[in-house]
């Protein structure tokens, strides 16, 4: 007995419980690990042939590459803690800053230029700094300087990043520096981003400094100044995190099954019956699995379909929070001209200037990719699709999508790339969730969580609720798993 709790009885109760996690993306796997650690019998059911969801790996021209998420934001330390728990800490790597940071392309009258260092979400601290002026010109710099001369600024929580930057620094800073960052990092317009969430501490710094640029100087002296904050990766690819999670869950006695799409959740007393569909051409037959509790870790649409029938209309009454569709075209090219990484680790675009949203020169950004590719071979990821625009690759065959990506890459990197230089390509489509910093998202997802919690012994995790990004999904999945298991273990 500890503090009146019978630990042996609790352990026995855990061993009797069975939880089914639906969806084997990072959210589902992290929550499954939380259950397995306590000795709860957990089964993960993943519809696809492989776990991972937006963490996807594949071969292109003989190279094994991340085809979806390729890094994690270091903020909060949650992903690093998970990586450490899984024994992968020694393989954590940082981007190759020696090649320079990201560039911005599509600047009217300028073309492409390095994204100024030291900013916060693209907002510069000093509008007259050479690298800032190169992008916004003298006119833009003087307009931004008005920020220092205007009455002292304080912002409320309702302010949008777009409104804030437009009013204090003018449209050149907004269109040429901030919009490329929010579009590239969040697939969203600055008008839809809450500065308080996207740049924690900015609000307080503004109150302290009295101006937006002053606040940025203040903040950037304290924190990493990469566009979306500091990121790291795993040597060999972020997909290794998925493989390590599956291995650890199985080691702890949990079960991870792939090619098992869940079609329906049915009430069975206090618990659940999970109905899985058969997939044509696979051995698995349609089946039902009994569970004391379920955690739905799928995309939003599937989660709603599965849970809504059990929430008395509460979930269906809420509008979806659906995010953009994104295509990532991975190109492997042979090009001596790219050896010196002419545009650093990658290129963001001024919205409307190109058909691509952003490009990552993966073999310049990550040493492990460069070493795998070998001399003269480069890996480039071109992304298409934002909140306001379907991907320009929509409806194209994979070959034509690759040619469009090659054309965009040539323009964004300032280096002619021909189809003869293309050694391989692959296009992957994703339904991306909204960023946590999207204005109103918190209220929407709080309402969705409340509706989900009206059903007993069901939880839901994943980017549609936590906001996109591993740094959001991981801690949220741990918290939700804890809520579900406590309700189960301490149920009267
Ligand atoms: C292209 C792209 C690049 C990204 N890059 C980064 C990055 O570099 N760094 C970063 O931190 N974040 C990045 N993100 C965001 C991050 O990858 C996601 O927020 C996170 O991986 C989402 O995890 P999830 O578990 O919520 O969902 P998902 O990864 O979508 O997983 C959901 C899973 O549920 C399964 N499923 C669906 N329906 C069913 C069903 N009926 N039955 C069983 N299973 C089902 C799916 O097959 C899928 O595997 C990126 C996202 C995208 C799309």
Automatic annotation (TrEMBL):
<protein>
    <submittedName>
        <fullName>Oxygen-dependent protoporphyrinogen oxidase</fullName>
        <ecNumber>1.3.3.4</ecNumber>
    </submittedName>
</protein>
<dbReference type="GO" id="GO:0004729">
    <property type="term" value="F:oxygen-dependent protoporphyrinogen oxidase activity"/>
</dbReference>
<dbReference type="InterPro" id="IPR050464">
    <property type="entry name" value="Zeta_carotene_desat/Oxidored"/>
</dbReference>
<dbReference type="InterPro" id="IPR002937">
    <property type="entry name" value="Amino_oxidase"/>
</dbReference>
<feature type="domain" description="Amine oxidase">
    <location>
        <begin position="26"/>
        <end position="483"/>
    </location>
</feature>
<dbReference type="InterPro" id="IPR036188">
    <property type="entry name" value="FAD/NAD-bd_sf"/>
</dbReference>
<keyword id="KW-0560">Oxidoreductase</keyword>
<dbReference type="Pfam" id="PF01593">
    <property type="entry name" value="Amino_oxidase"/>
</dbReference>
